[in-house]
Amino acid sequence: MKTFCGRANPTTGALDWVEESEEYDYHQEIARSCYADMLHDKDRNEKYYEGIRAAVSRVKARGERVVVLDIGTGTGLLSMMAVTAGADYCYAIEVFKPMAQAATCIVERNGFSDKIKVINKHSTEVTVGPDGDMQERANILVTELFDTELIGEGALPSYEHAHMHLVQAGCEAVPHRATIYAQLVESDMLWKWSQLQPIEVDGNKLLPPPAVVKCAGAPSVCDIQLSQVPPESFTPLGPICTMFSVDFSKPVSSAAQSYTAQFKAQTSGRAQVVLSWWDIDMDPDGNIVCTMAPSWNYSDPRTYPIHYGNTQNSLWFSLHYTHIYYVNKTFILDVINRFRPCCTCQAHLVWTRPRFGELNDEQRTESYVNALRSILKPDSVCLSVSDGSLLPIFAHLLGSKKVSRVFISCSQLLHANSLKHGVELLGIRPEQLSLADLEGNQISVLMGEPYFSTSLLPWHSLFFWYCRTAVAQLLHPNATILPRAATLYIVAVEFQDLWRIRAPCGTCEGFDVSPMDEMIQQSLDYRESWEAEPHPLWEYPCRALTKPQPVLTFDFTQCVPEQPVNSDGTVPFTGRGRCHGVALWMEYQLTEDITVSLGLTKPVSEEGACEWNPHRKQGVFFFRSTRETSGNGREDLAYNLTFEPHTGDIKMDFSITEP
């Protein structure tokens, strides 16, 4: 059955009524689930297998029947490992119905149906007894419930309930223990993702509002790939501290708790950021360790075990001193589970951390100020179309006669700098504007970054183009549009790790998990395999296998066309490697000689190394299967892209061909 669904279109700004199958959300959840990424993590799988074998051996050594409880079984991989290691029976719990069905199929295909029972319930709903889901309590608890904060995904409540109702006292647990580490650092780069910095514009210093400076910030972890944060971008102020450990073989409490670590400062500096990661010990003796430590924590990067998982500023940390001036002074670092301060200034609710970083990017600010300076005149009437943009403030400081804006404003910033009368907020949508709203003045400068909080993919910011079209009748005949154009670029890439989220597994540690591959591919084929998806590529290293290629240009000096715009062609492969997909991004031409890239920030090196803009997500189109490229001109990347003006979508098709 199909139903009509209202969806906000991020590109056109319209509310689209589309006919969708009732299974659309179901397929989208599976397609974007990234189930395969952990199964491609060979080091992790081997550590789990080794830990499970050791746990089974310890229980057998006590002369006990081995009963395993596997919470969050996914494909059933850990349960199959347990049975292969000698477990007598396994209860595999999976709350997500499609995954539970896939696990049942996988267990059956591998011949374990008589020893593994898949239970499609949340673990807290599982019962034990003659008529229950489990006939007896388990003496081995196996889980993979960890997210970037370690204790997310309901891990602690699940462990707490399992120890109370589902496992025996003194049970074995795999993992056996988890430990969270933290290090206090000074980092201008990361600090700029949290606080708005003073900005210089033609001798005027814009100061951040006091409420923003005093605010505790966003009430969530900053979830990033810490290995991709350059060591030279931060200065450790103290040692790596062991904050706390959790023993999963014993009863676990989900109640809020706090832990304290004291350390002496190693160097002077500003206490700005706490970096955090965790390890898990698969055995009681700590001989089998799976670590999420960043690569720069290893003296020899070649020994770093690759895990597809994020590290982050985790939980909530508080410091008893906010500035460090003296080496060897003792400081106290607290980590608090659950209760976190919340944003009181509203800015952290409007701007994401990457957005803070973008607004604090001095080079980017200079580009926009120089572009505005080159086009503004004393009698300029400006209209800004962007969310939470500083461009209207820049325009006012540069001497524009009148500056108006639509969408989210920076009213606090205006008040803090006594500029509240310099920029007018028009609380209406562009298509509703009239000359009366502009006091009879035609728009001589229409400007935008563009940035919109609803944008996910690079081309969603073409909403600026639709706004420009909506106000076309209000523009002065000689009006200037900034940016004047946008160009969509592509480059074929080989990913270091990101390929894992889409690549089929086939077999994992000797077990056939292809039913999961089939389930995911079926959902991808529903729609997702034809589309790109957003990823912050600065966090996911990749190597360019072709030269960057401009494929579509959008002329903002003209209205959105009525007819589709198509581009097709080929790009020769210049690099040798495995092509996993295509990266896509926008570059905005502010003026004739000033361009801002939201993708590659430097030319690709001869080896194919890429440096990506850390403040925006780029688009990634994954190939269904990888293809080896020779890099000697024998293969081409063929592309066909069509911009559909009525929907704002870009339909794309890529393939690798031989001339």
TrEMBL record:
It catalyses: L-arginyl-[protein] + S-adenosyl-L-methionine = N(omega)-methyl-L-arginyl-[protein] + S-adenosyl-L-homocysteine + H(+). Residues 176-307, 485-657 form the Protein arginine N-methyltransferase domain. GO terms for molecular function: histone H4R3 methyltransferase activity; protein-arginine omega-N monomethyltransferase activity. Transmembrane segments: none annotated. Signal peptide: none annotated. GO terms for cellular component: cytosol; nucleus. It is an enzyme of class 2 (transferase). It comes from Cyprinus carpio. This is Protein arginine N-methyltransferase. Its EC number is 2.1.1.321. Its main location: cytoplasm. Keywords: Chromatin regulator, Cytoplasm, Differentiation, Methyltransferase, Nucleus, Repeat, S-adenosyl-L-methionine, Transcription, Transcription regulation, Transferase. The keyword Methyltransferase applies. Belongs to the class I-like SAM-binding methyltransferase superfamily. Protein arginine N-methyltransferase family. PRMT7 subfamily. It is found in: Cytoplasm, Cytosol; Nucleus. InterPro entries: Arg_MeTrfase, MeTrfase_PRMT7, PRMT_dom, SAM-dependent_MTases_sf. GO terms for biological process: cell differentiation; methylation; spliceosomal snRNP assembly. Arginine methyltransferase that can both catalyze the formation of omega-N monomethylarginine (MMA) and symmetrical dimethylarginine (sDMA), with a preference for the formation of MMA. Specifically mediates the symmetrical dimethylation of arginine residues in the small nuclear ribonucleoproteins Sm D1 (SNRPD1) and Sm D3 (SNRPD3); such methylation being required for the assembly and biogenesis of snRNP core particles. Specifically mediates the symmetric dimethylation of histone H4 'Arg-3' to form H4R3me2s.
